[in-house]
Transcriptional regulator
Amino acid sequence: MGESNIIAFPLHRRRKLVEGIARVLESKNGEDANAFWRSTVKAILVQLSESGIGPGLAEQEIGMLLRSVLRDIATRSAKLAR
């Protein structure tokens, strides 16, 4: 059986996911924030793997998700600073 190409809706475009993660991270500091992120990533990687997404693409998705989460946090912080 050959490899199949699966196209999933990108994680970084799932607004509720991005905003939800960003809000939790904003409420945590230091190791608590790191532990939450690692736990979240682990769960997402399992879901992606079960969906047939290869490790390389899954890592790219996680990287783009992280950038979107950080952008969301920065945007919200900038709005609060005004």
In short: The chain has a mean pLDDT of 91. The longest helix spans residues 55-81.
